[in-house]
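Hi again,

Forgot to attach this to my earlier email, sorry! This is the prediction with S-adenosylmethionine bound. I've pasted everything inline since the attachment limit keeps bouncing my files.
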Amino acid sequence: MGRGDRRSQPDHYSIRARKEGFAARSIYKLQEIQRKYAVIPTGGRVLDIGAAPGSWTQFAHSVVGPTGHVVAVDLSPLPELEDFTNVTPIVGDIFDTALIESLAARGPFHTVISDAAPPTTGNRTVDTSRSAALVEQVISLCPALLRDGGTLIAKLFQGGEEQSLLAQVRSRFSMGRLVKPRASRSESFEVFLVGTGYTSQR
Ligand SMILES: C[S@@+](CC[C@H](N)C(=O)[O-])C[C@H]1O[C@@H](n2cnc3c(N)ncnc32)[C@H](O)[C@@H]1O
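Structure tokens for the complex follow:
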């Protein structure tokens, strides 16, 4: 069975997501990271970058509770999130300056989560360098968007840039780690950068 074939099969996590009413199986990656690193606080403000179809936002919304808020951004519309209270869906490009200004006005955030990924081309060099560019952009937004003490999660396709991006995270956060959740498909080359204890003073 080829890689594409396996990814199109509904696995345990896809079936469970459907049963539990989540928009995607990705929820379980964030849930695992949350269990280990408590990245999202109750009552917190969360920015979800690359949010469509919406399972990370759904999960973050359930963790922050009624006193928290989630801002969800994606290039694609977010119809699954329209009926949620305390969720602001925004269609936009995370490289767009006007969008960044409007996000800064809604911050600062306790947590920035990014599952953003480029459309894959099948060319690993192209895909991983586009993914790294997205992660670099997300890291560069921390001073404008993240509170001191805040937390970052960003998905990265592994292609050789992970150590330099991890070093960037470690230079701004008291802890930085690369995490591969069990819910991440074994054949996927994705990994998650986790940074906790953001400081703007370094
Ligand atoms: C894997 S999906 C996210 C899944 C989501 N976390 C969930 O749980 O439902 C990746 C998303 O990143 C978005 N994306 C890619 N580049 C983006 C950019 N420059 N700005 C905003 N969103 C972007 C894509 O449109 C896509 O919907």
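The pocket of S-adenosylmethionine is lined by residues 23-24, 26-27, 50-56, 73-76, 93-95, 115-118, 134 (CB under 6 Å). Helices lie at 3-8, 12-20, 27-37, 55-64, 97-106, 124-140, 142-145, 162-172.

That should be everything now.

G.
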